[in-house]
C-alpha cells in the first residue's frame, strides 16, 4: 500500500479512536416521519413517461455481465414490434454512428394472466476495460437511444468505490424521493436487496407496474449497474390465477451473472467490484443442507481472496437480525443454516430488506446456540458482520413502525423512516457507511453513520457505534 494510502488509513483510525467512547447503548430514533399516505404514483406521472419515437427502447437497465466487471449486460423493452437486439458501444463518442463495437443479444417475452409483455432484449457487452467510460446505443431500424456507463475499477485491495444501498423501493412518491436523494449522493453502483416493483400488490399482479417501475428507475440503472436480489414480491407465484412458475416476470426482465459465478440459478451469485467481493443469497429459494444454494455458498466462501478483495459483503432479502414486529424472525431458518459460515469467513457487512424501516446492528452473533444448551441470546463477536436492514425505499405497504421494546443489545440504531444508504470503501482497512432519511433532504448530514473496519485486516477492532 502506498504512503498516501497508509497515511489515509491512519487518519481514519485516529478519527475513530477519538470519536469512540467506551460504551454505546443502542439508539431508537425519536424521529417521526409525517403522517401521510404512501401511494403509488399514477401511470401518467412524468417519471413513467414513454420515450418518444416509434418502437423506442424503454426500461433500459444494466447489470454486470461477468464476475470481474469486464462485461455489462444491457436490457430493454420494445413495445410495438421486436426490432433489433443489437447494441453498439464504444469509448470515444456518444454518436451511435461512431461506436466501433457491437454485440447481438437475445429476445424474449412472457404472458401473465391477462398481460403479455413487450419484447424484452438482453445483450452482453464484453471486453470492457476497467474504469473506462463507454457509450452505448440500441433501437436500430426504428428509434435509436444512447446512454453511457463507467466500468467498475479492476478488483484490488486498496481500490476505493462507493455503493448505493437500496431495498423495497416500489414506485410511490416516497420511492421517487429515495431515488432522487440517492442520485444526489453519487454512488457508482447499487446493491439492491429485493422487492422491486410491487406489481403483485395489485389485482391479477398487474404487470403493467413492472413496466412503469422499469421506466421510473431507468434514469439511474441505465447509467450504472444495479445488482439484483430477489425478494418476496418477485415470487409472483399465484396458483389461484393459474400462475405456477415462481419469479416469472423477474427472470424474464432482470438477468444476473450467475453462470459466471458457478451458480445454477439466477437468484444466488457473486461479483467482484473494486475491493469488494459481493455475495447475493436468495431468501425464497431452497437453502437447506445439500441444496444447490447451500452447496454453492459453501464453495463460494472458499474462493474469496481477501488479499485481493478484502471487503466481503453479503446481500439477502429477509433479515437474520430484526427487532421490528413486522416479519419478526422470518429469516431465522436461514440464519441457523448459514450464520456460522459467515462468522468463520469474517464477513464485513450483511445487507437485507423486507422490513420497511431502518436498523443497523453491532457486531454480534448467535452461533453458539443449540437445542440443548439454551444459549439463545446473541453475544458480542468481533468476527461477526454488521447487519443492516434497508427495506425503507418507499414502497406502497408503508413504514414498519412496530419496534420491539426494550431495544436488544445487538441493535445499534433503528428508525421507522424511508431512505437509502451508501457504503464508501476507502482502502483495505476502512469504509464509511451512512444512512440518509428522505425527509432530511438530499444534502443533509447522514441520520446514521459509522466507520467500518475490515474484519480480515483489522479483526480485533470494534467499530460498533
UniProtKB/TrEMBL annotation:
Residues 162-358 form the Calcineurin-like phosphoesterase domain. InterPro entries: Calcineurin-like_PHP (IPR004843), Metallo-depent_PP-like (IPR029052), MPP_PAP (IPR041792), PAPs-like (IPR039331), PAPs_C (IPR025733), PAPs_N (IPR015914), Purple_acid_Pase-like_N (IPR008963). The keyword Iron applies. GO terms for cellular component: plant-type cell wall. Pfam families: Metallophos, Metallophos_C, Pur_ac_phosph_N. Its EC number is 3.1.3.2. Residues 1-25 form the signal peptide. Keywords: Glycoprotein, Hydrolase, Iron, Metal-binding, Signal, Zinc. Residues 57-150 form the Purple acid phosphatase N-terminal domain. Residues 384-442 form the Purple acid phosphatase C-terminal domain. One of its GO terms (biological process) is cellular response to phosphate starvation. GO terms for molecular function: acid phosphatase activity; metal ion binding. Belongs to the metallophosphoesterase superfamily. Purple acid phosphatase family. This is Purple acid phosphatase. It comes from Brachypodium distachyon (Purple false brome). The lineage of its organism: Eukaryota, Viridiplantae, Streptophyta, Embryophyta, Tracheophyta.
Amino acid at each position: 500500500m502506498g504512503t498516501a494510502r497508509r497515511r489515509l488509513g491512519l487518519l481514519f483510525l485516529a478519527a475513530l479512536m477519538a470519536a469512540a467512547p467506551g460504551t454505546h447503548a443502542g439508539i431508537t430514533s425519536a424521529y417521526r416521519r409525517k403522517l401521510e399516505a404512501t401511494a403509488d404514483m399514477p401511470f401518467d406521472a412524468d417519471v413513467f413517461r414513454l420515450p418518444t419515437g416509434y418502437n423506442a427502447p424503454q426500461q433500459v437497465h444494466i447489470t454486470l455481465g461477468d464476475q470481474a466487471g469486464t462485461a455489462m449486460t444491457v436490457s430493454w423493452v420494445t413495445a410495438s414490434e421486436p426490432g433489433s437486439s443489437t447494441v453498439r458501444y464504444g469509448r470515444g463518442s456518444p454518436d451511435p454512428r461512431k461506436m466501433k463495437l457491437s454485440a447481438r443479444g437475445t429476445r424474449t417475452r412472457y404472458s401473465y394472466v391477462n398481460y403479455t409483455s413487450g419484447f424484452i432484449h438482453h445483450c452482453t457487452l464484453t471486453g470492457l476495460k476497467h474504469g473506462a467510460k463507454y457509450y452505448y446505443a440500441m433501437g436500430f431500424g426504428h428509434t435509436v437511444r444512447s446512454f453511457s456507463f463507467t466500468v467498475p475499477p479492476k478488483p484490488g485491495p486498496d481500490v476505493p468505490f462507493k455503493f448505493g444501498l437500496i431495498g423495497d423501493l416500489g414506485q410511490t412518491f416516497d420511492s421517487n424521493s429515495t431515488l432522487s436523494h440517492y442520485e444526489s449522493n453519487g454512488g457508482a453502483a447499487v446493491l439492491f436487496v429485493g422487492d422491486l416493483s410491487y406489481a403483485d400488490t395489485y389485482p391479477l399482479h398487474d404487470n403493467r407496474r413492472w413496466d412503469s417501475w422499469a421506466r421510473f428507475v431507468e434514469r439511474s440503472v441505465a447509467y450504472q449497474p444495479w445488482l439484483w436480489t430477489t425478494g418476496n414480491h418477485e415470487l409472483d407465484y399465484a396458483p389461484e390465477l393459474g400462475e405456477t412458475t415462481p419469479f416469472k416476470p423477474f427472470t424474464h426482465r432482470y438477468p444476473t451473472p450467475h453462470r459466471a459465478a458457478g451458480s445454477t440459478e439466477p437468484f444466488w451469485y457473486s461479483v467482484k467490484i473494486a475491493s469488494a467481493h459481493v455475495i447475493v443469497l436468495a431468501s425464497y429459494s431452497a437453502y437447506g443442507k445439500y441444496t444447490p444454494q447451500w452447496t454453492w455458498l459453501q464453495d463460494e466462501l472458499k474462493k474469496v481472496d481477501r488479499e485481493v478483495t478484502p471487503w466481503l459483503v453479503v446481500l439477502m432479502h429477509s433479515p437474520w437480525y430484526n427487532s421490528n414486529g413486522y416479519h419478526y424472525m422470518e429469516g431465522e431458518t436461514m440464519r441457523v443454516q448459514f450464520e456460522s459460515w459467515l462468522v468463520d469467513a469474517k464477513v464485513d457487512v450483511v445487507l437485507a430488506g423486507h422490513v420497511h424501516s431502518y436498523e443497523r446492528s453491532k457486531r454480534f452473533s448467535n452461533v453458539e446456540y443449540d437445542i440443548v444448551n439454551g444459549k439463545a441470546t446473541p453475544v458480542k463477536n468481533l468476527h461477526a458482520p454488521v447487519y443492516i436492514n434497508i427495506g425503507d425505499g418507499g414502497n406502497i405497504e408503508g413504514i414498519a413502525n412496530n419496534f420491539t421494546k426494550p431495544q436488544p443489545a445487538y441493535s445499534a440504531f433503528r428508525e421507522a423512516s424511508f431512505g437509502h444508504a451508501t457504503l464508501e470503501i476507502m482502502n483495505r482497512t476502512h469504509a464509511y457507511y451512512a444512512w440518509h432519511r428522505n425527509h432530511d433532504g438530499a444534502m443533509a448530514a447522514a441520520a446514521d453513520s459509522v466507520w467500518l473496519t475490515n474484519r480480515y485486516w483489522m479483526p480485533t477492532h470494534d467499530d460498533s457505534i
